[in-house]
Amino acid sequence: MSVSNGTGDTGYGNIRLDRSGQAEAFDAIGDRYDEAFPHKEGQLAAGEWLIGVLPRGSRVLDLGCGTGLPTARQLTGAGLRVTGVDLSAGMVRLAPSYVPGADFHQADIADLRRGGPVDLGRFDAVTAFFSLLMLPRAEIPLALGTIRRLLLPGGLFALSMVEADVDDFSIPFLRSTIRVTGYLRDDLREVIEAARFEIVGESSYSYAPASSDVPPEEQIFLRCRRGG
Fold first, then answer.
1. Overall pTM surpassing 0.70 (yes/no)
2. At what angle do helices 140-150 and 185-194 cross, to 10 degrees?
3. pLDDT digits over 60-92, tens only?
4. In this structure, are residues 158 and 185 in contact, taking their beta carbons and an 8 Å threshold?
5. How many CB atoms lie within 10 A of CB 198?
6. Cα–Cα distance between 151 and 226 in angstroms, integer?
7. DSSP β-ladder status, 166-173 and 197-207
8. 18: DSSP letter
9. Which pLDDT value is given to residue 7?
């Protein structure tokens, strides 16, 4: 797989952002998402990694925070300052009731790019659990460039993706339809390293969601550090 090294976050003008139906699907799902995906061992383990490394009071950006469960709640409970961002206005409305100690914003990751309409400052760590898979492959290097810019030098990045060789592929999802992207394991590592992140740890989990219309999946979790 060939990966471009052009990971700067100023190239969004060359890409048509198509989010049609994506946020609406999650607005309709609401807190049923947490019921359909009740076991999040990989996500919690990645959160524990951050808690074990970051000093109390460190700033963490949770991209694709959903209702704030489990990550924003887990990190806030450990004394970290969490800012959550999600495309779904419905999810963001629910999140403060679950995690009153965090700060939540309805925004697209593209809004956080250099010169974009949303400026949240810089962070000691960023999490992106199953949020990058909502983007087409052409946009993922740009999103990774944005994440890298949002991190302080040496900042940490925890992410997860579903292992699959698909690009902007429509799937049924809790009585809605969403478009998802995935990579095979080695290809995902190549994409992350091309964006100038050092991968310091990796784990994977076989996962069967509670919902019958979502197929079993292999989840890949990467623990990364912002490179120089």
1. yes
2. 50
3. 999 999 999 999 999 999 999 999 999 999 999
4. no
5. 14
6. 7
7. unpaired
8. -
9. 41
End-to-end CA distance of the chain: 24
Instruction: Provide CB contacts within 8 A for 60, sequence distance 6+.
Output: 50, 54, 75, 80, 81, 82, 83, 123, 124, 125, 126, 127
In 68-168, where does DSSP find H-type helix? 71-77, 89-98, 140-150
Q: Where are the alpha helices (DSSP H) in 54-184?
A: 71-77, 89-98, 140-150
Cα dihedral sign for 168, 169, 173, 176? positive
d(CA 99, CA 73): 5
Pair 142, 148: CB distance under 8 Å: no
Q: Residue 223: beta bridge partners?
A: 158, 201
If DSSP codes are grouped into helix, strand and coil, which group holds residue 42?
helix
- DSSP-H helix ranges across the chain: 22-29, 32-36, 41-53, 71-77, 89-98, 140-150, 185-194
| Dihedral sign (CA 208, 214, 218, 221) | negative
pLDDT bin (cut points 50, 70, 90) of residue 39 is low
Cβ distance 151 to 126 under 8 Å? yes
Q: What is the pLDDT of residues 126-172, one digit of tens each?
A: 999 999 999 999 999 999 999 999 999 999 999 999 999 999 998 87
Output the CA torsion 213→218→219→221 (10° steps).
Answer: 180
Dist CA 192 CA 34 (whole Å): 28
